[in-house]
Amino acid sequence: MGILMQKIIQRLLPKSIKKELITYGKEKAFAGNNVSCPCCNKNYITFLPAGVKKRPNAICPGCHSFERHRLLWMYLTNKTNLFKDKIKVLHVAPEPLFFKKFKSYSNIDYVPCAKFGEGYEDAYPTGTIDIDITDIKLEDNTFDVILCSHVLEHIPDDIKAMSELRRVLKESGWAILQVPLDTSREHTYEDFSIISPEDREKAFGQRDHVRLYGKDYAERLEKAGFKVKKDKYVDTFTENEIFKYGFIKEDIYFCTKK
């Protein structure tokens, strides 16, 4: 099935079916072999639209992974030692999908954390600990791996948060620090006079974002003391594979200590 046919199917889906599918996980209605989710290893006729501005081919009917989750899971599996060595992992703002998976691996000493601010009290799985990543109350060189995806755009002092993450990362460790990024912008856009949720959504793409990162994102990470490798992992897949797995076309920001 091509992309055009998939879009036609998505337009024809009744809203009631979409809502029921997302709420109750009734993925059997979309059984097929056109797309394949690497997170749950299941095949479907299509991934579903998702997002403030609806993106086609976005959410998995089974495990509810998004495009960035599927790309990251494939990267972690094929390009890192996450599932091979004995390692201690700090996972910032853990996605329920990954939380469940990481907890199941005996080699991973797993520390999921988030800042329990207003509106986020019930956002994270039970067992997540309360940590402000701009002021991490843990010793230097504690973690072998740090995972932080789509968090820094919410934090006013992102450089402080990056510096703290670097501090608690071991000298031999690595971190993957992903953000939504506008590749048409040379420089990150932030304006702290913009405070209303409506204005922030208009300026930064989401009501609780405080900036829109540009091509200088790696420079900001380097300013905090990281050595950054922009891994164009998604480019190793064909267009058909990118469609099949529902990947987002973004670089993986693989960071180590300088």
Could you give the order of strands across the largest sheet? 7-6-5-8-9-13-12
Output the helix-strand order. Answer: HHEEEEHEHEEEHEEHEHEHE
**Unreliable sequence segments:** 5-10, 20-24
Structural class: alpha/beta
Give the biggest beta sheet: 7 strands, mixed
Shape: globular
- CATH architecture group name of the largest domain: 3-Layer(aba) Sandwich
Instruction: Provide the β-strand percentage band.
Output: 25-35%
CATH top level class name of the largest domain: Alpha Beta
Helix percentage range: 25-40%
Ends distance = 46 Å
Protein name: Class I SAM-dependent methyltransferase
InterPro entries: Methyltransf_11, SAM-dependent_MTases_sf
GO molecular function, one term: S-adenosylmethionine-dependent methyltransferase activity
Keywords: Methyltransferase, Transferase
